[in-house]
Write the structure tokens for this entry.
Amino acid sequence: MTTGEKIAMLRKRKNITQEQLAEILGVSRQSVSRWEMDQAFPETEKLIRLSGLFSCSIDFLLSEVLSGRSQTEAAISADSCVAFVRECGYFFLATSVADRPRLRPFGMICSDGESLYIVTDKRKNVCSDLRQNGRVELASYNPANEKWLRISGEVSEDDTCATLERVLSAYPVLRQKYSGEQETFLAIWRIHMEAVSIN
């Protein structure tokens, strides 16, 4: 895809008209139209603003390799998801068991650079729910920039020593709370991310 095709695709995905995009960027509608038809090219400053607006990298806008959705989502790393949640201070986890959806606030999330990990107590209902149905959605809202992080995927329990140590290093309070009982009461879940968006 060309840069123009990607701008058009991302604009339509956000349900923004050419006029609205032009207003956001401080350019004319004709400029946006010329970009989308590859008759002109956005200035560097406009590319930076487009990448922020569409939650994608500038590399994605400039490269002519992959299709939009997979590259846009690939540009949102596990580490950037963790940074987003930590800035917000919390996230919501949605589960569903026996057609009963449940939404719960969470605070602890970490990453190994490739995957996300969340922590539950094995004695809580959420642990039981996740064992019955690993399909989840996670959402976090940042009022400072009025953006949502949304992740959907499936979880699997990860009881490896390396993962336990990663979580305990990220959240030392767990070491104190579960002193000597981490393996007995902590359940660590790896999120296999299928779709990720920040908008």
In short: The first helix runs from residue 3 to 13.
